[in-house]
Specification:
This protein has 135 residues and is of the alpha/beta class. It is built from 3 helices and 7 strands; from the N terminus they run βαβββαβββα. The protein is globular.
């Protein structure tokens, strides 16, 4: 027997609220906040399709003190640069720009609570880059 990933959990310390952080990620990923969760709850999850891990946001007393040891790498369904602009408009901040002149690379962002994540190139951009290399 093996295990599956049920949740990817984000600690959420003051002044950030689990529900507000879940709303941010709901807008980024397109999955709603779980209908049983409410503002003020200590645990708030995204409602994802069965068989997929959910993001879970937990209230904790201590603030983040070090760099994330695990982070999400997102592959958008639109061009990477458009997705970076969209997610920044939702409240993320750019932490590090690793884009390369050849169109490859990624951008490191932080959500409103400081949790870092990366936006990579889209599948279409990746396929175009691979086709250019192979031609």
């Amino acid at each position: 027997m093996t295990s599956i990933v049920r949740h990817i959990t984000f600690d959420c310390a003051e002044p950030h609220e689990p529900y507000e952080l879940a709303e941010f990620w709901s807008r980024v990923l397109g999955h709603p906040v779980h209908p049983q969760d409410e503002p003020g709850d200590d645990e708030v999850a995204l409602d994802v399709p069965a068989g997929h891990p959910s993001l879970l946001f937990l209230r904790v007393p201590e603030k983040k003190t070090l760099k994330n040891r695990v982070h999400l790498d997102l592959q958008p369904d639109r061009p990477r640069d458009e997705e970076v602009e969209r997610v920044a408009a939702l409240g993320a901040t750019v932490v590090d720009d690793r884009r390369k002149p050849n169109g490859r690379g990624w951008v490191v962002l932080a959500d409103p609570a400081g949790n870092e994540f990366c936006i990579e190139v889209s599948a279409a951009e990746r396929a175009a880059a691979e086709a250019a290399v192979n031609s």
